[in-house]
Structures are given as C-alpha cells and as structure tokens.
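Replying to the earlier thread about multi-chain prediction with a worked example.

Input:
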Amino acid sequence: MSNDKDVPDVRRRKFLKGAGLAGAAAMAAPLNAVAQPRPAPANNPVPLPNKAAETAIPPALEVLTEGKSGSDFMVDCIKSLGFEYMAANPASSFRGLHESLVNYGGNKDPEFLTCSHEEISVAMGHGYYKIEGKPLCVFAHGTVGLHHATMALYNAWCDRVPVYVVIGNIMDVQMRRPGIEWNHSAQDPAAVVRDYTKWDDNPASLQHFAESSVRAYKIAMTPPTLPVLLVADGVLQEDPIPEGMVLRIPKLPQISVPQGESGAVAETARMLVNAENPVLIADHYARTPEAAKHLVALAEVLQCPVIDTSGRLNLPTRHPLNQSARARNHVSQADVIVGLEMSDFWGSLNSYRDQLHRTSRPIAKAGARTVSLGANDLYIKSNYQDFQRFADVDLAISGDAEATMPMLIEQVKRLADNGKKSAYEARGKKLAEAHAADVQRARVDATYGWDASPITTARLCMEVWAQIKDEDWSLASPTASVSYWPQRLWTMEKPYHFIGDGGGMGIGYCASASVGAALANRKHGRLTVALQNDGDLLMTIGVLWTAAHHKIPILSVMHNNRGYHQELMHVQRMANRHMRGLDRAHIGTTLREPYIDYAKIAQGMGVEAIGPITDPKDLAPALKRAIAIVKGGEPVLLDVVTQGR
Amino acid sequence: MTAARFWTAIVMALFLASAARAADAPNGDPMKGRALYTANGCAYCHGTAGQGGGGRTGGLRLAQMGIGYPAFLNQLRHPVNEMPPYVESALSDQDVAHIQAFVASLPPPPDVKSIPILNN
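Result:
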C-alpha cells in the first residue's frame, strides 16, 4: 500500500553521501514533534522547546537535501550556448531546471522571462531571432505545455526560425507521482511536434544531455535554420550528480553555412548575364545584416528588377531596382527568373483564381528559364504542406542563398563584359523611372479616404511613419493586413526595419513575436513598432503583462478592424457563391457587441495605453505621447479603430 | 503589366463592353446606395470611402474611377478575377444602380501635395 516501497530508495541514497546531517535532523524534528502530546495553552504564546525531539537519536536518517543536482549541470550546458534569455510558463516537470536557473545560474544568461502561455514563449523566440540572429531558449511543461507551444513552433518552422525548446518529462514510471504527473508524461513527448521541428532528443544521462544540447544548437543554426527540442528528464534534473562522475560539455563549433555548388552557380551567372529580362525574386533570403548588401550588389551589376516577396527585408524599399509593386509584369516578361529562398516559388510564377472553379495559369512566359537557390531542399518533411506546390524550375541549387551570393556576384561580374554595360544601364534607367512612378502612385492612392473614420490603413501607417522616421526604428509586425503600406511608402533599408511575417500564418504570432523582437532591440536602443491586429492580440494577449513586467519597450499600434476580417471576406465569398446574401456574414467573424476595450485590458496588465482612437486627427498627438513613454523604457498600446484593409 | 495598369485595363474593358447598355440604366440614389454598399459588404474589400484595399491583397479602388452603371453591373454579375459574384436575387439591378450612384458620388481626395506626411 505504501508508495514509499515502490520508490527505489537505494538508488537515491547511494548518491546522497554528501548531504548534511544537520539538515536531516532539522527535518526529522518536526516529524517527531507531531507525536508528542499537545501541551496545555500557556500565557506565553511562544512554544516551549521539545527536548525529546531535539535530543533523541532518530531511528533512521532520511536525507532530504542535496548539493549540486543534475539540473545544475543542465544549466551549465545551456549557459555554454550563450543564450541571453529563457522564456517559460512555470511548470513542475522542469522545476529542477527552473530552480537551478534562477539560483545556481544566477538568473543571468539566460534570464527567466515569465510568460503566461507557451505559445507566447516560442513566438517571443521567433521575433527575437529575427532581430538578434540567435535563438531564444524556451522551457515548456511536458505534454500540456508543449501542446500550448505547438502553434508558435509551426510558425517558426514555416518561417525558417530556430527556437531552442527544452521540455520536462518523467520517463521512469516509478518516479511519477500518482495522477497529474502521469497525465503530463509521455513515452515520446517530442512526437507531437516532430513534424515541424528539425531535431529532438530524449537524453538518458547527463553526459547525453550535454552532447545533445550542443548538437541541438548546431543543428538549429545550420541552414535551413529551424526549431529543435530537447527533453530534460525529471529524474535526471532532480537527482544529485553522482559523486566522482566526470561530465564534459562539448564545444560549440563555428558553423559553416552550406553554399550552392560552384558549377551550378556559374551556370546561373551565365543565364543572368545573357538574359534580356532577368528577374530576381527574394523571399526568406536575408539571414544576416549582410544579405541585402549582396543582393543590391548583384542587382546593380545586372541592373535588373528585384521582387521582394517580404519574407524578410531583402532589398531596401526605396532602391530603384526594387520592383515589387509590379511583380506580375516583370515575371510575365522575364526570360530568366532566379528565386532566392522561396517559400512559394510556384505562387510567384503562376496566378490562381479562387472562384467556384479554382483555376490557375502560368504568369511566366513559355521558355523562360527558372532557377531556385535556397536551403529548403536540404531539409524537408512530408506531413505538413508548407513546402507549397512544386515549382517547375530548370535548375534547383541546394544551398543557402545568402552564403552563395558572393560567389554568384563574382561570376556575374566576370561574365558581364563592357559590351553589355550600355544595355544594362538603359534597363536600369527604365526601372528607376518605374519605381519612382510606383511610389508617386502609392502616395496618391493613400489620399483616398484620408479623413475617413474608421481610419484607413494608409493613414494609420503614414501617421506612424511620420513619427518614427527620424528614429532608429524597427517594424516587428507583418504588413499584409495593412495592405503593405509600409513597403509602399516607408523607407526601409536596414535589416531590422522589417522582419517578415509569421511563417505559418497562425494568428497570435505578432503580439508575442513583436515583444520578442523588442526585447532584442532593447539593448541596441531601437524604437520597436508593431502594427498589431486585434484578432492576433486576443490570441496571446497575456504577452502584454510580460512586456510590462520585463520592461520591454514597444509601441504597439493596433489595426483594430473589430473582427477577423480575412475570415469575414471568406464568408462573404461563400455567401455570394451560394446566393444567400450577406445578412449573416458577420456571425462568427466580427468582434462586436460589445466592442473590446483593448486600452483597458492593456492598462490592467500594467501597460500604458491610449484609445480607442477613431478620428485620424487624434493619431499624431497620441503617437507623440506614446513614443515618449516607449523612450522611457515602457511598452505602450494605442488602440486605433480602422478599416478592414 | 503593373497592378494599376491591370485593374485599369479591366475597368476599361468592362466600360467599353457594356457601354451599349448605358441607356437602360435605372436611376440610382446615392443615399440608398450608401446603405446598400455597407449592407452588402462592398466596404470589406473596397473600404468605406471606396479607397480600395491597396497593395497586393485588397479590392480595387472605386472612388473617382468613373465606372459607369453597365460596367459596374457587369462586374458584379460576372466578376473578373477574384471578386465574389452578386446574383440578382441577392442584389437587384436597381440596388446595383443605387450603389453605383453612391460610388460615383464619392468626392475626390485631398491633393497629395496638401498632406505633408505623404511628401516626406
């Protein structure tokens, strides 16, 4: 009947030789005291010493404390990898690691970031990486915590972002407390996320943990960069390190990034140089701050159009060869198209019509030569379909596009003789004129509905731009739902000016990823801005408290269209298709009756907040006030009621 | 072809194709059209001021585009590209005329030069 008999005490006790007897005696005393007759109440409320309990020799010494535990060593392993932060919602399955991190590890490098949901922890890591270029560590509860984390992990997977996840678990059935610890344990706890993590392991010893922790980091950071997961067994965490055990943490190697094969790169250079209308398309191309410089160099040698599909900021928005606004036109005229780290190359080469009969047709002309250059083919899994439709390319080069770019530039420069120079210059001049016309057209487009309420997304974006353009700013949110106005009219040139979208498009990304990005920007003194959708904020709204608690400065400007507008348009499409009218399209797609007061919610979480703002004339003064608060080191939320798109 | 040229071409084609039907157009009331524009979800993609969704994902700008009733009706009944179709049982020709009158009544925007933050 006794559970104690199930637990192999011998296994524990043989490691406990170093434990202090004084501590054991102190623990034993109260147990004995319980057996004593209760003394009569006295006038003096201070209890009398229990002489018997304090002087008698207990029948057996139960050693209940320890010195250095396995979790201390695990923290040593984690520290060796250079993490600045570890984000987590606290959980019993990693209680050993938690305590070791904050006490033994001094809560520094990494510092514990308190999160109210594991989706927040991982998404913060997602945004953090895209600014800092290195992963955030995340601890998560075995099973239930990891289930919470899944959406954000899938987003990171689709966005080629490494997040380093450590989860607790108890493998040995004898070591699980009855009830809840069984619910939170699994024989293969990483299985639930294995389809969208690059590598995982369930170490059986501390040395195994040391080697796998370094291996996981190396794998995560080798392109394609992707999330990884380690299981920290509860018994390994909590048992003392056996006396005399020699443990060694392997060194983290410098990681060499795989490049495209030189012959294929030379062939690509030949195609580009000899093309009449070459086009470069870049998606998740920019991995480091050097990437855009290389792409600019290649485009300027060729004087060819570059289409930035906004997976990252691949090319400055005001560069005259940035022709993203006329992507379809250039693809349709191109004779050579090179895709760089494309998540959906097919989608750039074809059009698709979402009507009753779904149809598609090629945009690229027949005979156009296509080249894909990227790391995606180096690692792929089959279940989730984020690899998109198969692109019909002539040459597929597997290798990191950014790392390959210097070789490609060199080859192009070598082949581009002076005879081609005048033709290239003429091409570049036309493109520059087209770019200038696109910007001017966008300015005029922005004037429509300028004074409207709800506020147009153009007005919202331009009011924000007016206030941040002279700062060292960083936009940490996607831009599709604000109709890409920042790309159309802001001057984005530094890599942190735009960090791309959420990858898997699972909502809940922006609120947390933008705070993670702001965390990384904090030490650089940058002003982080997020154009925050209402539905997305609701998914992970607890991140507001994390931003307030950890004093993460961010200007979160809401695009509050009071609904799930994309879905509203989808229901509209279905209602029209079925000829049923739109009387009920709002059901399930809007956030009305009552409207949500996001400013009040934010204030309740300790975040300064202004709004709801409905008059566009109120935007500028509110933004000025908000930026002053952010510069003081605090997060601010501006609730702005906006048009759908 | 740029997105702007693409949409302009669509509008022009619709305009020319349906010009012959212009004489049959019912009279439209902009005030009724405003209510119908809202009730029938036009603003979801085109905005409450007919400003369009902008960028790569939004609906065409309607304000100041000079789209006549025949072309307007034709696009609603037989939309080019991804716009959802509006059948007569859901939106009568008269209702379409009201909406078209509302769209035609949308005022021109302020001059871009008069907005300093659009000129930085």
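The radius of gyration of chain B is 15 Å.

Feel free to reuse this layout for your own posts.
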